[in-house]
Amino acid sequence: MATAVWAAARLLRGSAALCARPKFGSPAHRRFSSGATYPNIPLSSPLPGVPKPIFATVDGQEKFETKVTTLDNGLRVASQNKFGQFCTLGILINSGSRYEAKYLSGIAHFLEKLAFSSTARFDSKDEILLTLEKHGGICDCQTSRDTTMYAVSADSKGLDTVVGLLADVVLHPRLTDEEIEMTRMAVQFELEDLNMRPDPEPLLTEMIHEAAFRENTVGLHRFCPVENIGKIDREVLHSYLKNYYTPDRMVLAGVGVEHEHLVECARKYLLGVQPAWGAPGAVDVDSSVAQYTGGIIKVERDMSNVSLGPTPIPELTHIMVGLESCSFLEEDFIPFAVLNMMMGGGGSFSAGGPGKGMFSRLYLNVLNRHHWMYNATSYHHSYEDTGLLCIHASADPRQVREMVEIITKEFILMGRTVDLVRTGASLAPDVAVSHRCRSHRLSCSLWSLRVCPKDSVLVFFSKFLQNGHLYKTDKCKVFLGPFCVGS
Question: Could you tell me which residue ranges the Peptidase M16 N-terminal domain spans (predicted)?
Fold first, then answer.
């Protein structure tokens, strides 16, 4: 007992002595910090032997100017310098599902899955990823209806390696039988996954394009049909690549790199190179212009087994109603973008936060007034020679007729001036923010929205709608889900 009391007293005396010490030690010596290395230097002074940091400046490389150079073979090199250690590079090719009219549908889908596989220089995808890993890089490939993109983000110091890797991936893929067989399995799985998703938006987008542009250009299947999975082989892929993977249809784009260095790398790896499919030179390129046809597609399907988990979701019928718009090269593209923003919309839980998008037309006039509608969202797809403005809606199968009437009414009421002015007022702050951050990159058309929304784009847009442009063409409609008798 005495021993315990003595130990406790000693512990207390030690604690008291510790508390009696000054809370902070002498500024000349810090035992448990890096201050011991530089004992008498205040934090406001630079440390000796430490390199001076480089900060961003408002001039020089901070000017976000896009530079474009065309090589002798027709390939364009575009770049934009940006302060930072990392860069993003990509080879964009004017190819996609719209060019498959003379081929088996689904080639672009296959090429997307085959990207960054074995090449002439790299024996496997793992070797490619290991090479990128040395520069902290990642890679990706995406295809749309009219564009294929191979992209890499990595440290700027590895620019030469990355450009060489991209060139090898695009121009020298091996396309082995094993890789093609694995791609068939991946495509099959993706098609099954699309049919099992609770969100049918990808399928509806595919269907609305098929209805709007029947059997031509952007109306061709973006996803590989099931019946073509076993038919696409190396010979078919090489035939397509020979016509559409040509230098004059390619752009090497980079952000965060010096333009001269990027052009030098492009000349080294992309100029005078023999691709894996033989001598370059397109023989049979499809230059068809999109022809809007309009139409209706109905797919009756049991949606009761589609769910994210054990709790079933409501059984819904999904529709999409669309009209032809314009291409992104026309001056009417901005009014259509404003219209899409004005319509807005979303699902039951897609607002993203309090008040976010809650004052768009589809929220105010559709979702807030008709409780039985689960979704109402506006989409705008724009291409080089055409466009498509559409609204996706979902509701109980017994109320399909009423749902179609409501969506059609919203199309008719699009040209009300009061809504156009309100949209211009809501868009102006976004344009102002863009001007404050990138004043020299703001286009004149967007600047006119901020300066005078009523007297420029919006007045033109109001006349554009009220003159009936949207109503001179046939509507396209698609239906997906269970149908009730009479709907």
Answer: 76-225
Start-to-end CA distance of the chain, whole Å, equals: 92
The half-sphere exposure of 188 on its side-chain side, counting CA atoms within 13 A, is: 11
Residue pair 171/245 in contact by the 8 Å Cβ criterion: yes
User: Nearest-5° angle of CA 362, CA 222, CA 112?
Assistant: 120
pTM of the full predicted structure? 0.79
Q: How far apart are CA 365 and CA 404, in angstroms?
A: 14
Question: Would you say 132 and 154 are in contact if contact means Cβ atoms under 8 Å apart?
Answer: yes
Place of tokens 């893929």: 173
Indicate the residue type of 392: H
Among the listed residues 303, 64, 69, the one whose alpha carbon sits nearest the alpha carbon of residue 196: 303
- What is the distance between the alpha carbons of residues 384 and 13, in angstroms, rounded to a whole number? 84
Domain boundary assignment for the chain: 60-270, 295-481
Q: Which residue is associated with the tokens 């952000």?
A: 255
Whether the domain at 60-270 and the domain at 295-481 fall into the same CATH topology: yes
Topology of the domain covering 60-270? Cytochrome Bc1 Complex; Chain A, domain 1 (3.30.830)
The CATH number assigned to the domain with range 295-481 reads 3.30.830.10
Rg (CA), the chain: 30
Which residue is listed with tokens 């007992």?
1
